[in-house]
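Team,

Forwarding the record for the chain on the shared tracking sheet. I've put the sequence and predicted structure together so nobody has to dig through attachments.
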Amino acid sequence: MSQISYFLYPIRCSCNKILANKEQAYKYLMEQGYSKEEALDKIGLNRTCCRIRMLEPIVIPVGVYQRPELAHPEVRRFFGDYLEGKMVMPK
């Protein structure tokens, strides 16, 4: 049985380029059969730092929401209060 996971792509690269608007295009091109390198070229990510961030997203297993202590340290750092129930999303 496979475990379901979410992929968390960064919003911005360390070079300050916005990556959030490229996630859907990247996924679409991958579904169309493009290689990773071709897809990144097609959406305009030419810098090495941007390419690395798109190729290595943070993977969040579904069970993490039930047991936040199992979360990757980087996920806990960004979403710690939310995962522990201390932060409520505004309505």
